[in-house]
Every structure is written in structure tokens, then in C-alpha cells.
Specification:
Blueprint lengths: L2 H10 L4 H21 L6 H30 L1
Helix pairs in contact: 2-3
């Protein structure tokens, strides 16, 4: 994320529940993915979990950008 987007998040996270939810989810998914990425070998189930988390993280990031665009336009 760019600096201005981080500033918008910091500015509106306290008053926008939806934004807070997606930012927290994104951070949680990132933390889990870091744990999976630190492993030398992933089981097939872990590979599926990794792909699923990456997709969820991307969807959440798109939602964050969608919310931020509303604030940029106003």
C-alpha cells in the first residue's frame, strides 16, 4: 500500500467498522501466510490453505481499496 492509503486507513479506521474488519483480516491472513512461507515443505493441505488465504487476502485488499476510494472521492 502506498503512504497516502496508509494515512487514509489510519484516519478512518477508528470510525469505519467495515474498514477495520478488512484491515484486521488482511493482517491476520498475512501473519498466517508468513508462517506457511517459512516452512521448507508444505503438505498438500497446507498448500490448499495457502492458496485459499492468498485469495481471501486479495479479496480483502480489493475491499479496502474500494472503501478508501469512497474517502478519496469525498
Amino acid at each position: 500500500m502506498e503512504e497516502n492509503e496508509k494515512e487514509l486507513i489510519a484516519q478512518y479506521i477508528g470510525q469505519d467498522e467495515e474498514l477495520r474488519k478488512y484491515v484486521e483480516q488482511h493482517a491476520k491472513y498475512e501473519e498466517i501466510l508468513e508462517g506457511l512461507n517459512s516452512k521448507v515443505y508444505l503438505t498438500p493441505d497446507e498448500e490448499i490453505e495457502k492458496k485459499t488465504l492468498q485469495k481471501k487476502k486479495l479479496i480483502g485488499k480489493e475491499k479496502i481499496y474500494e472503501i478508501l476510494s469512497r474517502y478519496k472521492d469525498s
